[in-house]
Every structure is written in structure tokens, then in C-alpha cells.
Amino acid sequence: MKFLISVIIFIFLQECGQKHQPVKITSMEHKEAKNNPYYSRTDTTKLNVSNDEWKKILTPDLYAIAREAATERAFTGKYNEFDETGEYYCAVCGNHLFRSTSKFASSCGWPSFFEADKEGVYYQRDLAYGMDRVEVLCKRCDSHLGHVFDDGPKPTGLRYCMNSVSLEFVADEHQ
Q1: Neighbour tally for 42: CB within 10 Å
Q2: Exposed (0-12), middle (13-18) or buried (19+): which is 93, by Cβ within 10 Å?
Q3: Active site annotation includes 16
Q4: Angle at alpha carbon of residue 53, lines to 49 and 58, rounded to 5°
Q5: Which residue from 40, 128, 136, 168 puts its CA 20 to 30 A from 88's CA?
Q6: What is the tens place of the pLDDT at every residue in 39-51?
Q7: 75: buried, middle or exposed (CB in 10 Å: 19+, 13-18, 0-12)?
Q8: Distance separating alpha carbons of residues 67 and 109, to the nearest angstrom
Q9: Dmax over Cα atoms in the chain, in whole Å?
Q10: How far apart are CA 89 and CA 64, in angstroms?
Q11: Average predicted confidence (pLDDT) for the chain
Q12: How distant, in Å, are the alpha carbons of 4, 80, 134, 136, 159 from that of 104?
């Protein structure tokens, strides 16, 4: 019985999965926008920037997650238990991704949404590590955001399981 419970807990924790070693998230207030000539919340032009260039611009944590598809540790992200009204943007390029009204408490350890901005993301099959998942990427800069699963709430039935470090939140009153 203990073995069965251990297996169930292991599967639950692996649901959002990790592609690389977990990244220890450091405190950062999205300094990328200040040092990033490609960052814009209004320009939706597709970017073609090399990973070498991104590595010079982005913090190590954001680079590892956004460009190398690493995953932040569960329950450590600043937006996991965050409930303010506003918009979520790509921390790499400023592209719009989610509205806070689509965020919900999934208890998976990462911020979860049931709907994404259709103009903000695209999808790619991810077969890494023996799992069959759907990766979510920023449509403007091709950065890894997380994965989407079909176990979310109505109306979509989807759960976008995102890395907090890949997101930037702007409250309604600051727009």
C-alpha cells in the first residue's frame, strides 16, 4: 500500500515534469525589460534572436527555463499562489500570454491557466523523458513557457502549467 501511494505521489509531482535539473529561482523583478532591446508589450513582430544573444541579455534562471526548457521547482514560483487582476506577458519578449481571469488554483505547484491568448502562444509535441506532452511556447520569441494538459476546468478543460519565471505580471491599475 505504501508503495502504491509513493507511486501516485511521484506521478502527481511529475505531472508538469522537468526537462533539466530544477532551477533555483532567485528573487528578480523582471530586470530583462531594462536590459533587453527586444522586449516590448506592443510589438508583436516575430523575433529571430540566437540563443547566444539571449544568453547575454537574460538572467541565468530565465535563460535556463525559456531557452533550454528547464523547469522551476514546484511551489517556488512567485505566481503559483498569486491572485491579482491583470495581464501576464512573456518575461523574455513582452508578448501577451494570459489574462488573470483564466488563472485557477490547480495545486500542481506551478501557476495554471485554462485559456491562453491565441495570438500569444503556440504548441509543440514534447516526447522528452518518456512522456508525451504538449509544450507551450511564446509565439513571438519561441521561448519555453511550460506545458498544457487536458485535465483543466471548464470551459476549456485545459490546464496551462507555466513557469513563473517565464511570466511577467502587470496589474490592471498599472496598464
Answers
A1: 7
A2: buried
A3: no
A4: 105
A5: 128
A6: 999 999 999 999 9
A7: exposed
A8: 21
A9: 55
A10: 18
A11: 85
A12: 29, 10, 19, 17, 9
Q: Dihedrals φ, ψ of 5, to 5°?
A: -65, -40
The pTM is what? 0.81
What is the H or E stretch that residue 67 is in?
Answer: helix 60-68
The residue type of 57 is I
Options 16, 138, 141, 161, the catalytic residue: 161
- The amino acid that residue 15 corresponds to is E
Total residue count of the chain as it appears in this document: 175
Grid cell at residue 117: 491568448
Strand ranges (E), 52-120: 86-90, 96-99, 103-104, 112-113
User: How far apart are alpha carbons 29 and 25 in whole angstroms?
Assistant: 12
Rounded distance between C-alpha atoms, residue 19 and residue 129, angstroms? 7
What is the side-by-side strand order in the sheet with 144-149? 103-104, 112-113, 159-162, 144-149, 133-138, 121-126
CA dihedral 165, 13, 159, 145 (to 10 degrees): 30
**Residue 173: strand, helix, or coil:** helix
**At which residue does the C-alpha cell 500570454 appear?**
97
Distance, in Å, from the CA atom of 166 to the CA atom of 170, rounded to the nearest integer, reads: 14
